[in-house]
From TrEMBL:
Annotated protein name in UniProt: 12-oxophytodienoate reductase
Organism of this sequence: Sesamum indicum
Catalytic activity: (1S,2S)-OPC-8 + NADP(+) = (9S,13S,15Z)-12-oxophyto-10,15-dienoate + NADPH + H(+)
Gene Ontology molecular function terms on file: 12-oxophytodienoate reductase activity; FMN binding
Organismal lineage: Eukaryota, Viridiplantae, Streptophyta, Embryophyta, Tracheophyta
InterPro entries named among the record's database cross-references: Aldolase_TIM (IPR013785), OxRdtase_FMN_N (IPR001155), Oye-like (IPR045247)
Length: 378
């Protein structure tokens, strides 16, 4: 939003109504449209190593001037909790990402890597030496939630926090080494950063718990370290204050989101990516199909750089959100997963492929991954 950081609509379109297909300048990146690939875990990176089929999958979804955010990728060997999700902490990971990034760049795409630590959303089996997963707390997620049997976590000691912050810093450096244009810090969906942010999980009594300022400290230390390492113009963050995923709930998500939006301005990072409150506690947002909740508006207004909204968007809702200046960019998850040419389909207002939930997380290198048809084949 702020002109000083160089973000904002390209001047050539200033007089026409803005839509998903309007160009947009995000920092140094010239986007030709505002349809962003949301980060989507696909479980096809065997033994945490990205695979050649990843190049096919991502380049299918790349467009000239289109922003893609790669799936959540672990920052260290304690960061993992799901089978065959990628990592970015070894030389092997970096080398394996390179051809995938190249394939996206060859099509003119802009490619960010989402970096994650899952914290307590893990089990002994995923941890080095079978140790307990780490978290802000030693409270575990309720056994059986979402069909998962997670292992009880171990509360990080205060003196261990800088080591985790450093893991994010090194992961960001590795992402740039692999050729990514930037990183998105995963501060959403119940993973480690949210385990610190949210008051129904974080029960610490040190300076990383208690007040809003204290609960946000860990996230902001990571933002600062990553921005110092690779430059703030290459850093985004994703937040989901309203989500209850993995029992990460906050009693005042409006205040949490707004605090973070304001606090992030200090670091002048490229973007803030927020997930809509479709589900809050046990309540599901059930507005009319094309209604936008507008609950993120205070955060959108408070944050001075690019604002990305995600969660439940379709073409008409996306156009409305852009036209209303509610968001600069819209990230699409399931629809982009099932429609590799989503920007073209939106341009033509063409029908969409339906997504198949049963193949979201299987390990097949083709099925449910690279075999969704393009428009001309549909
Ligand atoms: C298969 C699948 C994998 C996902 N993986 C991630 C992920 O790695 N990181 C993340 O922040 N969100 C992840 N999400 C959430 C999506 O990015 C997005 O927020 C969600 O699907 C809602 O957007 P949509 O209504 O456009 O699908 C995932 C969602 C799906 C369906």
């Amino acid at each position: 939003m702020s002109s000083s950081s160089g973000n904002g609509p390209a001047s050539s379109v200033a007089t026409v109504p803005l839509s998903l297909l309007s160009p947009y300048k995000v920092g140094e990146f010239d986007l030709s449209h505002r349809i962003v690939l949301a980060p989507l875990t696909r479980n096809r990176s065997y033994n945490y190593v990205p695979q050649p089929h990843g190049a096919v999958y991502y380049s299918q979804r790349a467009t000239k001037g289109g922003l893609l955010i790669a799936e959540a990728t672990g920052v260290s060997d304690t960061a993992m909790g799901f089978p065959d999700t990628p990592g970015i902490w070894t030389k092997e990971h970096v080398e394996a990402w390179k051809p995938i990034v190249d394939a996206v760049h060859q099509k003119g795409g802009i490619f960010f890597l989402q970096i994650v630590h899952v914290g307590r959303v893990s089990t002994y089996d995923f941890q080095p030496n079978g140790q307990a997963p780490i978290s802000s707390t030693d409270k575990g997620v309720t056994p059986g939630l979402e069909g998962l049997e997670l292992s009880p976590p171990r509360r990080l000691r205060k003196d261990e926090v800088p080591g985790i912050v450093n893991d994010f810093r090194l992961a960001a450096r590795n992402a740039i080494e692999a050729g990514f244009d930037g990183v998105e810090i995963h501060g959403a969906n119940g993973f480690l950063i949210e385990q610190f942010l949210k008051d129904q999980v974080n029960d610490r009594t040190d300076e990383y718990g208690g007040s809003l300022e204290n609960r946000c400290r860990f996230a902001l230390e990571i933002v600062e370290a990553v921005a110092n390492e690779i430059g703030s113009h290459r850093v985004g963050i994703r937040l989901s204050p309203y989500s209850d995923f993995m029992e990460a709930i906050d009693s005042d998500p409006d205040a949490l989101g707004l605090y973070m939006a304001n606090a992030l301005n200090k670091f002048n990072i490229l973007y803030l990516h927020m997930i809509e409150p479709r589900v809050v506690g046990s309540r599901v947002f059930q507005g009319p199909e094309d209604e936008i909740p507008h609950r993120l508006l205070p955060m959108r207004k408070a944050f001075e750089n690019t604002f990305i909204a995600a969660g439940g968007y379709n073409r008409s809702k996306g156009n409305r959100a852009i036209g209303d200046d509610y968001a600069d960019l819209i990230a699409f998850g399931r629809l982009f997963l099932a429609n590799p040419d989503l920007p073209r389909r939106y341009e033509l207002d063409a029908p969409l492929n339906k997504y198949n939930r049963s193949t979201f997380y299987i390990s097949d290198p083709v099925v449910g991954y690279t075999d969704y048809p393009f428009l001309e084949e549909a």
